Amino acid sequence: MNPLSVLRDAWFFSSHNLAAIARLTLPLLVLEAIAQAVLAAQLGEDANPAYGVLLGILFYPLYAAPLILFLHARSNGQTPGNAQLFAAGLQLWPSFALMTGLSTLAIMLGLSLFIVPGIWIMMRLAFSELILVLRQEPPLRALQSSFSMTEGRFWPVFACLANVLLPLWLLDWWTQPSQGDTLLWVLHQAGNGFLQLFAIVVLFRLFMLLEPRQPAASQNND
To answer: Membrane spanning segments where (predicted)?
Structure first.
């Protein structure tokens, strides 16, 4: 499992499906950014960051689940419409939002313990969203399954995600506009969120490489 090959394959897929991914996710990313701007305007500078995190947890499943379903459909040669993907994603929203909240809390607690535990938890939970959507597992089981699936694979997962997220986080920090310029801030947030969705494509590629091994592993355990 070569991280460079995974990144190359994910980039190839994203570049050839960029317009479809944009149509599927950008409207909700813009809506999320607008909601964040409205929340910041209402609460002011002393707003608790937890409100923004909660808003992200509510919005993220609305576009992440359809994107995962799109990736799975395209990998099987299918071309479902956006309405069909949104409808299927909406059915998963309660469990997806709950799992997102649990994983976010775990990662934040880990980051508060000198950062390294948070990074370790983030890598071990990397496949939880894919497992919940594609295997239809409940939130806690999806988190547990992700821990099992990443056992002994921390560094390949870390290499893939670090090569995607670190440059994007640095770009976000370097280009962050003033929140007083609402339009520019909304566009920046939506654009940065869209770029970070590439991490889901990378994880999906990793997941597809590892998933065929799971049934055999389960049989051996039996």
So the answer is: 50-73, 85-108, 114-134, 154-171, 183-204
178-222 tens-digit pLDDT:
767 888 989 999 999 999 999 999 999 999 998 754 443 333 443
Helix, strand and coil in the chain, % to nearest 5: 85, 0, 15
Which tokens belong to 50? 């937890």
The angle at the Cα of 88, spanning 28 to 72, to the nearest 5 degrees, equals 90
d(CA 171, CA 192): 8
H/E stretch holding 218 reads helix 213-221
pLDDT of residue 1 exceeding 80, the answer is no
- Count the neighbouring beta carbons within 10 Å of the beta carbon of residue 164: 22
Percentage of the chain surpassing pLDDT 70? Answer: 92
Show the tokens assigned to 34: 């607008």
Note whether 14 and 198 are within 8 A (CB): yes
Tokens matching residue 78: 């299918």
Name the residue with tokens 């597809």: 208
Cα dihedral across residues 37, 39, 41, 47: positive or negative: negative
Give the pTM: 0.90
Task: Look at the chain and count its residues.
Answer: 222
Q: How many CA atoms lie within 13 A of 21 on its CB side?
A: 23
For 69-109, the pLDDT digits (tens) are 999 999 998 988 999 999 999 999 999 999 999 999 988 88
Quote the crossing angle between the two packed helices 154-175 and 198-210, to the nearest 10°.
170
